[in-house]
Amino acid sequence: MVFAYVLIAVKPGKIDDTIKALKDIKGVEKVSAVYGEVDVVAELSATDLNSLRKVVLGQIHKIDGINKTTTLLQT
Description:
2 helices
């Protein structure tokens, strides 16, 4: 099992919509709005790195309003 945190910078006014969209993605375990350089932190789990990549690149990056993501793998 692979666990990661995805730090997400969001366009102004899109935080609530982004959080709702993230919660609908399989593998997203928790979503939190935060203050600072990033706006949202999503906790993910996947069976392997390839599955994690598919979630981040194939689903999270397609959410309208996301400017940038940084993925941190948990060991």
